[in-house]
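tool_call: predict_structure(chain=1)
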Amino acid sequence: VENPTQNLESFFLNVVENAITKDEETSGSTSGHAVAEFLRSDAPVQSQAEKMLDRLADKEASKPKPKIQKETPQVEQPKVDEEKLESLSESNEPGPPKEKVPESKSTERQQNIDKADDKLSGLLGED
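tool_result:
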């Protein structure tokens, strides 16, 4: 058992030849004729080396030229008075008193959470 193989071009040409011999319509496909004019190029075909040189030349031409930067004079930064900063950052006045949650509310909240946990455990079937 052999599996003959053929390339796509030879397969196409065989199909066209068979269609011509049977006088079937080939939708304009023919064999043995010249390449269509719109597919032909009148310009000479560039070699791979010429294409590479053209691309390199285009890259060099498209590179932006380095801009000459003008020297800007450095502006002196004002000195920071560390002592003044420390005196301002320290607070001699007592801040507002922190609010403390009364223990009765926190224990009441905890009890509510415990009750909710118990209900959920009962729904899940855990005892």
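agent: The first helix runs from residue 8 to 21. Proceeding to next step.
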